[in-house]
Amino acid sequence: MIYELANARRLAATRCIIFCIWFWELARDPFERLAALPPAFFEPLGPWRLLTPAALGAVWNEASLLGLRLLTLTTLMLALLGIGSGRAWAGGFVVLATTCTSFVRGFGHVNHAQVQLLLVTIVLCAAPAWDALAVHRDRPLGSRNYGFSFAMLALVFAFPYFETGVHRLAREGAQLFVSDAIAHFIVRDTSVLDDFEFTQGLWLGENTWTWPLLNLGFALVTCAELAAPWVHHRRLTCLLWLSVMLPFHLLSPVIMHVFFLDDALLALLLYGWPLSWKAATD
Amino acid sequence: MTRGLRFAAAALAAVAVAGGARAAGDWRLIVAFLLELPLVTLGLITAWRLTRRHSPPGAERSPVGRVALIVSLLLVAGQVAKKKATYPFLAYTMYGNAPSQPIGYYAYEATLRSGERQRFRPSKLLPALGSARIVRGLSRRLDAAGCANAPLDPSAPGYELIVETLRSLAALHAERHPNAPVERIDVIRVTRPEGPSGPEQRAERSRIHVTPKS
Fold it and tell me: What ipTM was assigned to the predicted interfaces of this complex?
């Protein structure tokens, strides 16, 4: 396993980086401005389904939503710095982050951005990640297995990739990789999604000679997705996996207007960084 | 097999019944479901066992091991249920269904107060609106109003909500670009009937005046 040299500081550093990614996600997104949209457009999801229409009406204003965002950011900072019980703050943050991320998804498509980050954060709450780099450190009880904690974070991060690959094969089989499906997806997403202004996806669609290459890349990414839950057991498989998935994550905004930066950062954190570890003492 | 995995098998059997009932009526969905459930379950069991084999005895009973197992099982359940209500344990089906219809979408063109026309990109107004959220939300409502094949009818269901939402988006745009407020948004249906390499066809569906309230 690539986590044999894991230690308290490395797991704590992982905690800090994960919460820093969350900080970047939440601090740059003033989602309270969504209160300007008509409430009838909102389709409640997650904890928001528990609210009655009257309760939803009461919190449907910029001040309440700003309060939610600030509370989430405060909890995040307490968990990041490990002030008091960092684990308890992290648990509270998970609840609040679920509330925030489900709120923005109520305005349309329920996509997977931030979801793997959220799943990894849930597992992090139970890991001995506050044994170092925290204002108030947890007192280690007996032997702590930091490598196992990393493996659990990797498993939960990787499993959605595996599910994606399985669904693709179970639903369509290999036929999907010898058709014009990926060219269709690329042109469709480049046209529909307006987050970016790249036009390379349309060029790929118009030039049919590129389609066999697109199909090959699609099949390669699907193989990497299917292998994801096992790659962290060997350095070579880890390297191979990164060599497929990192270019995929970095190319997807250019050719499909889809960018999951969190996933690329998590892949580097959980698979790339451990490959560089050298023996160190706590 | 640990007690946790036995519990997982029982829970998955229950989810299987629910999923089977949901898929009834579409044989391809049923076949996919019958393949997907055992494969995902097998994947979880083998991944879990391999990690356990490389870990000290008892590690899987630590808090992090238990929580990771629960999260993984919920992921399997979410994958089978395929309901957005299970958020954040969603189904992962990206690019997994062969395209069954030609490419079709709605584009929005803004006419500014200066008379200049430009593409209106709702996703760029706020990060929360991006990643396909607002464009797919709008698209669903425009489809429901019959806009895919005909001009938007003011008596169509949801017309008022579409107009109100576009006006709110225009107001957000005006906050970001106070010198270039949007006066009107044209809703355009764009299709590629000949497939991804074919030409685009554009048809105007509606002109909505969205002058921000002063």
Answer: 0.95
**Distance between CA atoms of residues A88 and A100, nearest Å:** 18
What mean pLDDT, rounded, does chain B reach? Answer: 87
Name which of A167, A187, A218 is nearest B196 (Cβ-Cβ).
A187
Contacts of B161 in chain A (CB under 8 A): 38, 40-41
Give one DSSP letter per residue of A1-68, joined into a string: -TTTT--HHHHHHHHHHHHHHHHHHHHT--GGGGGGS-GGG----GGGGGS-HHHHHHH-SHHHHHHH
Side-chain half-sphere exposure of B1, counting CA atoms within 13 A: 12
Q: CA B84, CA A51: separation in Å to the nearest integer?
A: 17
Residue spans of chain A under pLDDT 50: 282
Whether the predicted pLDDT of B68 surpasses 80: yes
Coil, helix or strand at residue B90: coil
Q: For residues B43 and A96, give the distance between their C-alpha atoms in angstroms, rounded to a whole number.
A: 31
Choose among B50, B96, B138: nearest Cβ to A171. B96
Kindly tell me the burial class for residue B138, based on how many C-beta atoms sit within 10 Å of its own C-beta (0-12, 13-18, 19 or more): buried
Which residues in chain B are closer than 8 Å to A148, comparing Cβ atoms? 51, 55-56, 59, 62, 64-65
> To 5 degrees, how large is the angle CA B203–CA B208–CA B211?
145
Q: How far is CA B186 from the centre of its chain?
A: 24
Contact (CB, 8 A) for B121 and A193 = no
Instruction: Give CA–CA dist B151/B149, Å, rounded.
Output: 7
The pTM for the full model equals: 0.91
What pLDDT, on a 0 to 100 scale, did the predictor assign at position A80? 97
Range list of β-strands (E), A67-204: none
